[in-house]
Amino acid sequence: MESTKDKASTDPPQPSTIPTIVKTEHGTTSLPTPPFSRSTSNTSSDVDEGGNKLQRPKLVQRKSSGTMIIPRDAPTNGPKVEYPPDDARAMSPRRSTKETELMVKTARLSLQNRVKEMQSGLAAIAAQVDSVRANCDSLEGNNLALQEAIGDMTRSLSRQGLNK
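Below the sequence we write its predicted structure tokens.
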């Protein structure tokens, strides 16, 4: 006699419910579909609550969207419309080429001025480093001279102490 554990391991696994996407008037809806059955007969899962047979939605055929490349010499989409200055559409962030060139020019000038300021600051720092380095070299020379003088005095005192 087989145990229920052995039977469960030999039975094929039951497929899970697979959602179906249905397009409606109000948008797209995802509906669960009943699991697939190996038999072709209608089961209770193939029939909805109203007794109607459930059917898979038809596959929608799509038309090719074609190329999205637009040649440079193609005409623009519509006529250019002028809006009054107080109209919100006239206040859009779109700028003309003259405005853009002016903005680029002013930004470039301000950047060049900032670079000149930073370069002059860097030159001042480099000059200060050079003066500190020269001062340090001078102090090191004076330090060596003092060490030699102290060493000479110590030797002369030690000789005088020995001669007494």
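The chain has a mean pLDDT of 76.
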